[in-house]
Design brief:
Helices cover about 30% and strands about 45% of the residues. It has 3 helices and 6 strands. It has a 6-stranded mixed β-sheet, with helices on one face.
């Protein structure tokens, strides 16, 4: 991994740590701010979740269902100009720190001239349905 790639990986680790912290605080308005203006979530069992307001509502529903913390482990990161692709693992916890779900995901990021923003977010559980 070259220096530029290591720096980008550290930058994304920091962004994801901030995401995790704000999520655990229940601050879904700020969570929505991590996403681009025309971002989409592509969760299993659902249609597209489009735009920050809908993304905020989606994550609030997750909290209301008992998810109190998310841990994201960045596995792979590739930059392509003002875009980047992330492959990661996630773990979702309840308030007692019991694991509710684990899985993997792919995120497409966009650089908006000021910051990296989550643009397309898709994940799938390791659990069988």
């Amino acid at each position: 991994m070259n220096t530029q790639t290591k720096d980008l990986h550290r930058e994304f680790d920091t962004i994801l740590e901030n995401f995790e912290e704000l999520f655990s605080q229940g601050n879904m308005a700020e969570i929505a701010g991590f996403y681009s203006d025309n971002a989409m979530l592509l969760p299993a069992g659902s249609d597209f979740i489009q735009g920050r307001q809908a993304i905020e509502a989606y994550w609030q529903e997750a909290v209301d269902m008992g998810i109190s913390r998310i841990k994201i482990d960045l596995m792979e990161l590739e930059q392509h100009g003002d875009s980047a692709t992330e492959v990661s693992r996630y773990t979702m916890f309840d308030a007692e720190e019991s694991i509710l779900d684990q899985g993997k995901g792919i995120m497409i990021w966009k650089y908006d001239g000021n910051a990296w923003k989550m643009h397309r977010d898709i994940w799938t559980s390791n659990s069988a349905y």
